[in-house]
Write a structure and sequence with these properties.
heterotrimer; A alpha/beta; B alpha+beta; C alpha/beta; B: Arc Repressor Mutant, subunit A; Glutaredoxin; 4-stranded mixed beta sheet; 4 strands; elongated; C: alpha/beta; FAD/NAD(P)-binding domain; 23 helices; about 30% helix
Chain lengths: ~575, ~160, ~725
């Protein structure tokens, strides 16, 4: 028997490290306790997997440090009774069994801190195989696979590799974009934290294909654990001669470097990322020239994101055709999504392209977590858009998703119910892009700010006739005029919400009402006298003394004084306070 | 806050390793902030001297990235996640709770030097939203009450 | 060479050229704000976008390379829309005034800040030339104008507005005392123009048309020219000798003046039109308005301007000892103070509102009071009562102030049943004046009974006949209004005579939001007013009350100017581009990115609230000079450009090479001129070769009115020398 504790960032935040420490204090042999990365069932963290000697798995979920003794009993005596309540349900197990994992194939299974664990899982065999081919042959396999950039744009990977390969010059760079900045997306973090060698292997294959002797990973600073595990993995790979000179005895040499970002979403844009790598402000460069011709230190460079590289090893081992066999005509293979928000089962979902949003949100995600109905799903973060309930059967495919006005994006999928205001959602994203705009070009620097100001006015009930049209005009101008992808896609959250929820905008502007009841300036809190027990809790929680009443008698809110903070609403135990 | 003199010898190791490696400015600044908790003016001037990068460029880089600070922070740096999932799960209420409890706005430090509040980009723990990080520790599934309790415990721990 | 098509024209460009380079090579204009050959392409402004056939995205022409057979459109609808929105966004975040509010509020658009600034520098000669671009009678106007400029002057928010009108009179008096400035007159066009009426409007139109090379004759019914300035303004306010001198200068410029001829008697509009290529009707409004109060027909009740004209012409009417003047405007002030000077013992001013609402100039109100005038506020004549056909008393209705009316002033309403009676020997009605309609019966009149003239082109219903001033449209107004019309009319007539189209669109300019301006950092410095004759001396004669500014007083007063208008106005690239598109930045009005602030050293002034973040200064300082004195700070909307740690420029390694200033497309960075007080002037720039240490170097020299104002290094050598301003000026001496 051995105990494996899921220790991705989510798991640790949920208490996995406390569980591990508690287990170490039990009588269980410490050598039998190890860790793995993110299993992806984030809603069940902390998760403890127990493998018997035949490698049969018993998965315990929502474990706390107080369960350590019971787990020890189970491991040492086989006494299931004490852990019975922790064993994952069949229903929850389906969250994983319904997935097809390629990029995440080792996540939550192997120990990310040990290279041997990766090697035992057929790790680095693809690299060995690739080094036996010509770079052109490698590129050809990737071409056959139909692998496209998983960072959001969906550009064919082989094409970029080929362009960089064709580019003149001895000095070339292979760069991995791990600046996963979309709020609501954490696929890349999970890959690096859980299977860093898979990334390294994919990158080395890419470096070999384009003829680069230098590989660089740009990781966002908010992912300290990912950086730590990747550093460790690089050191181990160097030790084994997998990184360095004459890898596996071939002519191919490649060094590896990690650079930590410092907090700038725009650095996910490839030219801004290069500027940042060079130690500058992350302001996008003009294209042309493209990085394939002139990138890092003005040398030919190729940039792919983490998930893209995470697929490469599998493709080399299994063949391009096997990968291309999954998916739709123009979207091949699988895609990882970070499903979050008001969904019952949130976590990482990898499924073949061609499945529908319904498959992800309802079949795998289990539907809504509250009793409020599904309203929309936000895909692609600040560059993407909101897809409404009636398009739930949209197929996961670059083209089909693009047609809705949203994008495939890097994989963030935030599920919303009727309590989410769509104007507020658009404002949320514009607030994000306005803060993250580098400030270089006019359209993005001032345009996103002005859009935010307009949306802010609308949510405050100060919108006026013509605002929607003005917003649309500004959106199209920004899409056309902004310098980089950040600005060009910044209007998408506004355009899609106007497209699908125009009535909600109109309600804010014309009737000064927020149908979702979220915009505090447009709602009123009231106490339903029949339901109020006169417990005085709301009055005590009110920061401005707007609630009056005597004990055991219904209370009243003075709407003149009320600042609409919502504290009474959340504190009431009897559902006597309503928003209108 | 008192302006204590900055011990620049602490930077020797960092500068020795990186000063002559091109493209290392961000790395140097990250290391500097790890040492002092922020980027002191004196340190920036020394970095400029050793790397040959003008102070105007260093300030340009330092002020571009949200990670860097130019003022010392409190004992506990609260980083409240502003991600989408947190937004959808009412992180606004948590922000308001922290502001009310500590009497500070985003980017400020309490008068006793105990807490600093910073709203940050998505921390990537979306399944636990709303989330905050205080120093190295992540706190998830926050409610106003839970947040108050955490702050209270930290304040007591510090005394 | 590459062959491509731009805007339907087949052009060629060398291999490797960008679209922008190809367009410029072929004289096709593409606007840019962040581009300059001296530095690497940047792509920030996005104004250089063009559309290329077969490419879905707009291309930034500064970086996109030409390829064989490319078909480019630099002015497509999509391109224009993109540039328009870019400019609207940019201007919505550009916190600056192109032109000072004083100038904008002057009906004649006189460059007040310009001449006030020149006076502060002792450049009186340049000041009068600048004034005379807009006003040919500045000594007179400076004395009588109710100065709307001063109402807009922002110095009032510190303590009191600049004494702009008196400064104008000062500069004009200086000119009258020395060699008079006579403008250069253009070559004769051979066209003849007749002007009917020699008041401020007629004389102004005649003056500017003469300068444009036309042959102009002014016909006037009175003995002398000047119109209302002569016959409506008392001597103590505008000595007729001053007016005479100014008219003499107009005559010297080439205007022919004919007096004692009357429209309708000696000639008609049509008869003049037959002899001339164009006619301008500027006959004024010479009839006093009636109050429609019972008893107006009584003997001893006079019209305000009739009374004043009588006094000026030497046949003052009998007014007796007790005189009541009805009205609260400047004519009422002129009438009451004239009555005092004629020896009246009790002079009343009857006004239905209070002192605060009086339209007359505050100084006039005060000075009249000093001279013994008695104000009867909140009273309104109910009837003029007579005996034997002669006025003996006035019954006054007592009033109180009610709700504000359309003008914003509180409306006076009668207090039921409350009246008052005052005994009088005469009454002067100073409540306005009207056109004598019979004079202009050849022209179409509007419902007010005034000549109907086009507000932009000043045309009437008769071909080639134009009309301006008090006789037109809304009726009588102030002299400067008529002068402004006359100036614009002169341009319209010139366009008519030469068959050119006249663009009357008002070009876009940037204006600061008045409510956003902070004055707390300004030191208070009291307004200087010229000394006046003591009240007990002046109330006995018609000597000019004001003694005028001394030179020291004038300079001190002029130096108070806050310099609102932008110094770069005349060469602002940003404004140039903004005016190319029909923009309305108001629709994107919102927060300004930077607080208005100034940082200056001896050479350079920085004003980050005007910065458009094109980055040319930062890039040139880095890429060309390798100095890095300034850099970008922060990001997004709040991005700022500043030296490190926000140090003043003086404390950086800036060598004052001036490169950043010369590249700045707007007024965020300005190079100071040699003048003590900085003034926005339409300077002439020329590139000149000078010798520095035995080597040939290029400098840019700016001159105004013949004076060298700045010398700016213009090549690598001159920039590298780090010369002081004195040394640079020495180079061109």
């Amino acid at each position: 028997m051995r105990i494996v504790i899921g220790q991705g960032s989510c798991g640790i935040a949920a208490g996995a490290e406390k569980v591990r420490k508690a287990l170490l204090k039990t009588s269980v042999d410490p050598d039998k306790i190890s860790i793995t990365g993110c299993i992806g069932m984030c809603y069940l963290e902390p998760i403890v997997d127990i493998y018997d000697d035949d490698n049969n798995l018993t998965r315990l979920v929502k474990v706390s440090e107080n369960d350590a003794e019971a787990i020890a009993q189970f491991v040492e005596n086989g006494d299931r009774s004490a852990v019975e309540k922790l064993i994952v349900s069949d229903e929850d197990s389906e969250f994983l069994t319904k997935q097809t994992r390629i990029a995440l194939r080792n996540c939550g299974i192997i120990n990310p801190d040990e290279i041997d664990a990766y090697i035992n899982a057929d790790g680095y065999t693809a690299l060995k195989k690739a080094l036996g081919m010509t770079p052109e042959e490698v590129i050809d396999i990737i071409k056959v696979s139909g692998l496209a950039g998983r960072g959001g744009a969906g550009f064919p990977t082989w094409f970029k590799w080929n362009a960089a390969r064709q580019s003149a010059g001895e000095e070339k760079y292979l760069i991995c974009n791990a600046d996963e900045g979309d709020p609501g997306a954490f696929m890349d973090r999970a890959v690096i934290e859980s299977d860093p060698h898979n990334l390294i292997e994919g990158m080395l294959i890419g470096a070999y294909a384009i003829g680069a002797k230098h590989a660089v990973v740009y990781v966002r600073a908010e992912y300290p654990l990912a950086i730590k595990r990747l550093k460790n993995a690089i050191a181990q790979a160097k030790e084994k001669g997998i990184i360095g000179e004459n890898i596996f005895g071939s002519d191919f040499s490649c060094d590896f470097m990690i650079k930590a970002g410092a907090g700038a979403f725009v650095c996910g844009e490839e030219t801004a990322l290069i500027e940042s790598l060079e130690g500058h402000r992350g302001m996008p460069r003009l294209k042309p020239p493209f990085p394939a011709q002139s990138g890092f230190w003005r040398k030919p460079s190729n940039i792919n994101n983490v998930e893209t590289f995470a697929n490469v090893g599998w493709i080399i081992n299994n063949g391009g055709e096997a990968f291309a066999a999954m998916g739709t005509e123009n979207s091949k293979g699988t895609k990882v999504f970070a499903v979050t928000g008001k969904v019952k089962r949130s976590g990482l979902v990898e499924i073949p392209m061609g499945k529908t949003l319904r498959d992800v949100i309802f079949d795998i995600g289990g539907g809504m977590k509250t009793d409020k109905p599904f309203k929309a799903v936000q895909m692609g973060g600040p560059s993407g858009g909101c897809i409404p309930a009636d398009l739930i059967d949209t197929v996961i495919d670059y083209k089909a998703l693009g047609a809705t006005g949203a994008i495939m994006g890097s994989g963030g999928m935030v599920v919303m119910d009727e309590s989410t205001c769509m104007v507020g959602m658009a404002k949320f994203f514009l607030d994000f892009t306005a803060k993250e705009s580098c400030g270089k070009c006019i359209h993005c620097r001032i345009g996103t700010k002005r859009m935010l100001e307009m949306l802010d006015r609308i949510t405050k009930g100060e919108g006026k006739e013509g605002d929607i049209e003005l917003l649309e005009e500004l959106c199209y101008s920004i899409k056309d005029g902004a310098l980089c992808g950040l600005g060009q896609t910044a209007p998408n959250p506004v355009l899609t919400t106007i497209k699908y929820f125009r009535d909600e905008y109109e309600a804010h502007i014309k009737e000064k009402k927020c149908p979702a009841g979220e915009c505090s300036d447009l709602i009123e809190y009231k106490i339903i006298a029949d339901k109020c027990r006169g417990c005085t809790l709301c009055a005590r929680n009110c920061p401005v003394g707007a609630i009056s009443g005597t004990v055991k008698n219904p209370h009243v809110i003075n709407t003149e004084k009320c600042i609409k903070c919502g504290k009474c609403y959340t504190s009431c135990k009897f559902g006597a306070i309503v928003k209108e | 806050m008192e302006n204590k003199s900055v011990d620049l010898t602490l930077l020797d190791g960092v500068l020795e390793e990186y000063a002559s490696v091109k493209g290392s400015l961000i790395t140097i600044l990250q290391n500097t902030q790890d040492i002092y908790g922020y980027l002191p003016k004196e340190a920036i001037e020394l970095i400029s001297e050793k790397t040959g990068i003008a102070t105007s460029e260093i300030m340009g880089v330092g002020t571009f990235y949200t990670q860097f600070r130019f003022e010392p922070v409190g004992k506990y740096l609260i980083m409240l996640c502003q991600g989408t999932a947190c937004h959808v799960n009412s992180s606004e209420l948590i922000l308001q709770t922290i502001k009310d409890e500590l009497g500070i706005e985003d980017g400020q430090t309490t008068a006793d030097g105990l807490f600093s509040l910073k709203c940050v980009a998505c921390l990537g723990c979306c399944s636990l939203s709303p989330v905050m990080m205080i120093n190295e520790d992540t706190y998830g599934s926050l409610t106003p009450d839970k947040t108050k309790k955490i702050l209270k415990e930290l304040r007591e721990a510090a005394q | 060479m590459i062959n491509l098509t731009i805007n339907g024209k087949a052009v060629q460009a060398p291999e490797g050229s960008t679209i922008l380079e190809a367009a410029r090579l072929n004289d096709i204009y593409i606007p840019t704000l962040c581009y300059d050959e001296a530095v690497e392409v940047y792509g920030a402004c996005g104004l250089c976008v063009v559309e290329a056939e077969g490419i879905p995205k707009l291309l930034r022409s500064c970086s996109a390379k030409c390829s064989e057979g490319m078909v480019i459109n630099t002015e497509s609808e999509r391109v224009v829309q993109s540039r328009k929105v870019a400019m609207e966004l940019l201007m919505s975040a550009h916190d600056g005034d192109c032109v000072a509010p004083c100038q904008l509020n002057c009906p004649a658009r006189t460059d007040c800040q310009g001449y006030v600034g020149l006076i502060a520098n002792g450049e009186y000669d340049a000041a009068i030339k600048l004034i005379k671009n807009k006003i040919p009678l500045p000594a007179s106007i400076g004395r009588v104008c109710p100065h709307p400029c001063e109402k807009a002057c922002r110095r009032k928010n510190v303590e009191e507005p600049i004494n702009i009108a008196q400064l104008k009179a000062f500069a004009a008096d200086m000119d009258l005392k020395s060699d008079n400035y006579i403008p250069e007159v253009m070559a004769s066009t051979g066209k003849k123009v007749a002007v009917i009426g020699g008041g401020p409007a007629g004389l102004t139109a005649a003056y500017y048309l003469t300068i444009m090379g036309h042959s102009v004759t002014v016909y006037d019914m009175m003995e002398k020219m000047g119109g209302m300035l002569r016959y409506g303004i008392p001597q103590y306010r505008l000595p007729k000798e001053v007016l005479d001198k100014e008219i003499a200068i107009i005559e010297k410029t080439g205007v022919k003046l004919v007096n004692n001829v009357k429209l309708g008697k000696d000639f008609t509009i049509k008869s003049l039109k037959e002899e001339n290529d164009a006619v301008i009707v500027a006959v004024g409004a010479w009839k006093s308005s009636s109050m429609r109060t019972p008893g107006e027909e009584l003997e001893g009740v006079y019209g305000g301007i009739d009374f004043l004209r009588g006094v000026i012409k030497g046949n003052a009417p009998e007014i007796g000892e007790k005189v009541a003047i009805c009205g609260g405007g400047n004519t009422a002030m002129d009438a009451c103070r004239t009555a005092v000077r004629l020896g009246a013992k009790e002079v009343y001013v009857v006004y239905r509102r209070t002192r605060a609402e009086m339209p007359a100039d505050e100084l006039e109100i005060e000075e009249a009071e000093e001279e013994g005038v008695i104000y009867k506020f909140l009273t309104n004549p109910l009837s003029f009562n007579g005996e034997d056909g002669k006025v003996k008393s006035i019954t006054l209705q007592v009033m109180e102030l009610g709700e504000p009316d359309a003008s914003g002033r509180r409306r006076p309403v009668p207090v039921e049943g409350k009246t008052e009676e005052i005994a009088v020997d005469s009454v002067i009605l100073a409540i306005g004046q009207k056109l004598v309609q019979g004079d202009v019966s050849e022209l179409k009149l509007n419902e007010r009974g005034n000549i109907e003239a086009d507000p932009d082109f000043f045309t009437t219903d008769l071909e080639g006949v134009f009309a301006i001033g008090d006789a037109t449209n809304r009726g009588a107004s102030i002299a400067i209004e008529a002068i402004g019309e006359a100036d614009r009319c002169a341009k319209a007539v010139d366009a008519y005579l030469s068959g050119k189209a006249l663009d009357t669109r008002v070009p876009y300019i940037s204006k600061r939001d008045e409510s956003s301006i902070d004055y707390s950092d300004r030191k208070k410095q009291s307004r200087v007013t010229p000394k006046v004759l003591p009240a007990d001396v002046r109330n006995k004669n018609f000597d000019e009350v004001s003694l005028g500014f001394t030179e020291d007083e004038a300079k001190e007063e002029a130096s108070r100017c806050l310099e609102c208008g932008c110094r770069e106005y005349y060469k602002c690239k940003l404004l140039n581009v903004a005016q190319l598109y029909d923009i309305n930045p108001e629709r994107f009005k919102g927060e300004m990115p930077q607080k208005y602030s100034r940082d200056e050293n001896a050479f350079i002034e920085r004003n980050t609230s005007k910065c458009i973040l094109c980055g040319l200064c930062v890039r040139s300082c880095r890429e060309v000079m390798d100095l890095h004195s300034i850099g970008l700070l922060g990001r997004g909307f709040k991005t700022d450009i500043s030296p490190a740690f926000n140090l003043p420029l003086d404390q950086t390694n800036c060598t004052n090479c001036g490169l950043c200033v010369s590249l700045c497309p707007t007024g965020a960075l300005t190079e100071k001129s040699v003048l003590d007080k900085q003034v926005p002037l339409n300077e002439e720039y020329s590139e000149e070769t000078v010798e520095i240490d035995g080597q040939q170097a290029s400098v840019l020299v700016s001159r105004y009115n013949g004076k060298v104002l700045r010398v700016i290094p213009n090549d690598e050598l001159s920039r590298s020398m780090k010369l002081s301003r004195e040394e640079l000026l020495e180079l061109v001496k």
